[in-house]
Automatic annotation (TrEMBL):
Key word Membrane present: yes
Record-given protein name: Multidrug efflux protein
Segments traversing the membrane: 60-78
InterPro entries: Acrflvin-R (IPR001036)
High-level lineage: Bacteria, Pseudomonadati, Pseudomonadota, Gammaproteobacteria, Enterobacterales
GO molecular function: transmembrane transporter activity
Originating species: Escherichia coli
Swiss-Prot/TrEMBL keywords: Membrane, Transmembrane, Transmembrane helix
Domain of life: Bacteria
Pfam families linked: ACR_tran
Keyword Transmembrane helix belongs to the record: yes
Amino acid sequence: MLLSVVVALTLTPALCGSVLQHVPPHKKGFFGAFNRFYRRTEDKYQRGVIYVLRRAARTMGLYVVLGGGMALMMWKNCRAVSYPLKTRAKSWCSTRCRLGRPLPVQQK
């Protein structure tokens, strides 16, 4: 226990001090190029977030239109019976064959 106290009071702060010391950023080479690329990407992301937040109503309207369109397409393409068959936590939907299609083609 005494060793643990000595390590906690002496070595840990020294290690933190050496790890957290200020290092000037790289301006040349691979790491400099990476830092510039990252800074540009971060700035573009921030501008995009600000753009969306300032136009929140338009963005939400776009999401509603896209979601409604996807729901309509799913409703038109999936001829499902109106009752779900529940098995444990999963909800399954029983589908009907389209008129004029033989059963083996439908099962593929």
